[in-house]
Amino acid sequence: MFSYNINGMSERETINGTPVTEEQIAAWAKEAETGYDIAALKKRGRGRPGRGAEPSQVIALRLTVDEISALDARAEREGKSRSEVIREALASA
């Protein structure tokens, strides 16, 4: 639960567990007012890297405890993520 001060900001706002200070907010505001280097922002990239030309979708998948154990064991053995193992299984079907 948050409590808000007169400016509407939570008195307990944090970033990765570190409280946000008024000085940080002022510095961020100043940076925004002076403008950002768009080329640098684009170069940095945001989000997960693409997997192809078309957008991908996230789906929910229900697995039993045994299926998850088998999936995790294979992923560990092959040095891959769960998603990589599932995609490879679908590609070979």
TrEMBL record:
Highest taxon of the lineage: Bacteria
Residues of the Ribbon-helix-helix protein CopG domain: 59-91
A Pfam family of this chain: RHH_1
GO BP terms in the entry: regulation of DNA-templated transcription
Alphabetized InterPro entries for the sequence: CopG
Entry protein name: Ribbon-helix-helix CopG family protein
